User: What shape does this take?
Amino acid sequence: MSATAPAYTIPRRSVVGEEAEWCKMFDPPTDSPATPELLAPTNPVPAFIAANVPGAKNTVPNTIRRDLMHGTDLTMYDGKKVRFFTFSDPDVPATGGGVWPGPTIRAPRGVVFHGESSAGGPPPHTIHWHGIEPTPMNDGVGHCSMEIGSYTYQFQPNFIGTYFYHCHRNTMQHFEFGLYGMLLVEPPDAFSGAPAVAGGYPRRTAANLANFPQFPGFVAGDLAGGDPHAYTVPYAAEALWVLDDVDSVWRDKMANAKATFPSHGLLNPGVDDQFFKGDFHDFNPDYFFVTGVPFPAPVGSTVSCAPNVVVPAHLNSGVTGMQVSVNAQVNQTVLVRVLNASYVTIRVRFPVDVVIIAFDGRALGVPPFAQYNHAFLLPAGTSYELSTARRFDVLMRSSTPVNSFATVEFRHNQKNDSLLLNGLIPVTIS
Ligand SMILES: [Cu+2]
Assistant: This one.
């Protein structure tokens, strides 16, 4: 048997000349199906949120809920109103009007995770758990997974790290309009310690720091043997940098921008959808953000976001004290999680040496992939480039005070890499 003389063939229809159609693998179900092979969920975090966030409840035991909404106009720094799509958590009243980015989901490694989705705006929507590897039905990829009004997603997060969730129906509208949030996988015991520990810091994340003894508390250990802290390190402070851009003209002009997209079985799927027509090809962002906090200046500027921004516990699974700008003390280990949620290229520079410990939800040098990569030093001032949807996690620890900025360059990935904005994020270590 060989590639030129196969023992069997799988008949496939040629899609040559039909590039717009490739994405539609089957017509999705027309109503909300039951989750195949549904297990009892074991995620303790929904109960933790109900116990620690005022007004929150846990309607479905061990289950996180998300409502996907349409049509929130947010006011930009200069007064312009721009249309966003947002998530809310029906169990957390403070998110009721929809928030952007969506509420951060934290989950311990190894639980049976249930995410119950519903659609306050017109369906169809999906939730794609970016970087997790669920079954196809639970992957939430529009046009080739289910895409309906409500569904209970089921998966087991098996690698500690930084992920995100987003609607994957007509992605370049629903994701670009803001239907996403972070998904952070933590050690198995992250929510089973004393409440003061479970809801604050220090916390632990996955890393292999055998070559970086400046970060105390790293445990190598026996991952396969069940040690919940094997290949993890404690951190005393945490910052979340979700970098995003908005093209306000694109959002306004996009055909059918404020509606949803074709119903099941209508038109010619993947061909008559609007998303490759009109103005979708020309994306020129004019507003820039870190974790929803504006860089308040026009294209071409160098500008700082506000200092001292802390993510409220009701947007962070009940965990108190996650930061945007960095405020820490000397000799504290600080974890910075970075996501490029924009549609351009981003280059990140730190004002101090940092160690990159993970990419895209996989810790470097950690079994079972330990032989393929390793954590590495990124010297102060050295840029690191991220394309859309990529993430990296870095650790910083300074023995001397720092009063400076990290920089995030938004660069146009269609127009000669031209600089769109130079964003500054305060880093203060005192
Ligand atoms: Cu959607």
